[in-house]
Design brief:
The protein is an all-alpha fold. It is built from twelve helices and two strands; from the N terminus they run ααααααααββαααα.
Length: 278
């Protein structure tokens, strides 16, 4: 009908409803929220973005089920005095060794059930690997993925999340808005012209924020070439603020750089991204 359709976040519309909730007040609140310049509408995803997001959701469910299964195996075995090391990789090895060891205090019934749980754990591993391969095959067909993976700290999972959630990045006018949407900016409590900054706001997309922080942590601990602009920027920041704050600051930087790469459709330039350090 020639109308411009907007999808508004429900949590932002709620503030305009008032005391009484009915259809008329809801419609009025939606109209008022739609006219506010600081409320970003929800971006309408394309079919390709929905496919990538669906694969991510299915993979996350499989990972959560695998984690829950591993915790159950540790809990059941611990009742018999058998403790396994952390991480799924070590659990596979320790559980297989314990099942073959006849000197442990595992009862025959639990030993049989643990073998079935070990087989289920391997099936979930195969499911996660299959979804990872399918996700990579889908991403290879997109030019954005080739540009994003050049950024240090951006892997297939983070790139898929950025593509499915941001698209071309047109919903944000600059990189800071995107990092604020991820909850990677300081929380403010300013008054009377005095600025007070605290920890992260942790608003917005929690999954994307987690992936960016994990990627930044990998860069801080494993990035070896410290003579590059990124290396010098990290060393100066770590010396001034410490490792943990440097990780969050780098995650904020990665969010802004990723937005610029998607929005302007340009390749990653380390000298431009970290131009402040000579």
């Amino acid at each position: 009908l020639g109308r411009c359709v907007l999808l508004l976040p429900a949590q932002h519309v709620k503030a305009f409803v008032g005391h009484q909730k009915n259809d008329a007040n809801d419609a009025l609140a939606i109209c008022e929220a739609a006219q506010r310049p600081r409320i970003h509408p929800v971006a309408v995803k394309s079919v390709e973005q929905q496919d990538i997001q669906s694969l991510r959701r299915i993979r996350q469910r499989a990972v959560d089920n695998r984690t829950a299964l591993g915790n159950q195996i540790r809990g059941l075995s611990g009742e018999y005095g058998l403790c396994f090391r952390q991480s799924i990789r070590l659990l596979r090895l320790d559980l297989l060794i314990a099942l073959d060891d006849t000197t442990t205090e595992l009862s025959p019934l639990l030993r049989e059930e643990l073998r079935l749980l070990h087989s289920e754990l391997l099936d979930l591993d195969a499911t996660v690997r299959r979804l990872d391969q399918k996700l990579r095959s889908v991403l290879r067909e997109r030019d954005e993925y080739a540009r994003l993976k050049e950024i240090p700290g951006i892997g297939p999972l983070t790139a898929s999340a950025l593509i499915s959630e941001l698209g071309d990045g047109q919903r944000f006018s600059n990189g800071r808005e995107m990092s604020a949407w991820c909850g990677l900016i300081p929380r403010q409590n300013s008054s009377g012209g005095r600025e007070r900054l605290h920890g992260l706001t942790k608003n917005g997309n929690r999954e994307l924020r987690t992936l960016l922080i994990h990627g930044a942590r990998a860069v801080v601990y494993r990035y070896k070439n410290r003579q590059t602009p990124l290396g010098r920027w990290l060393d100066a920041l770590i010396a001034r603020r410490g490792v943990h704050k440097a990780i969050v600051a780098l995650a904020n930087k990665l969010a802004r750089v990723s937005w610029a790469v998607l929005h302007h459709q340009q390749t990653f330039d380390m000298n431009k991204a970290f131009a402040s350090i000579k």
